[in-house]
What we know:
The chain is an alpha/beta fold.
Amino acid sequence: xxxxxxxxxxxxxxxxxxxxxxxxxxxxxxxxxxxxxxxxxxxxxxxxxxxxxxxxxxxxxxxxxxxxxxxxxxxxxxxxxxxxxxxxxxxxxxxxxxxxxxxxxxxxxxxxxxxxxxxxxxxxxxxxxxxxxxxxxxxxxxxxxxxxx
Length: 149
């Protein structure tokens, strides 16, 4: 896993969200630059589709409320639109780098977590989307308390 550097994170709040509100709808689009290793986090009431590329290496997340509480839902697309690299390699990269992505989201939205401390204990559910049944799966990745700096 790469080491998270807060200095390489840019956070943008779009109209409809503030650094502390609302919980729903609050959607996250995390992208990065392979060249500079910078991370770009958009927090909005929608996904920032303008930031997506054919590589589909973004991390898309949102809060979901159930009768028993909130959980954080993460979507990862393992099948590249371009076919390169392979689903197997993309899976390895996502698994290796997801802790860094979760640290970046937790740090980038730290004032939100300060205002809603119970959300640090909400489960993080990750959906690995793939056409290949060997990689298409849902996993529990702990809570944000596991990803604080």
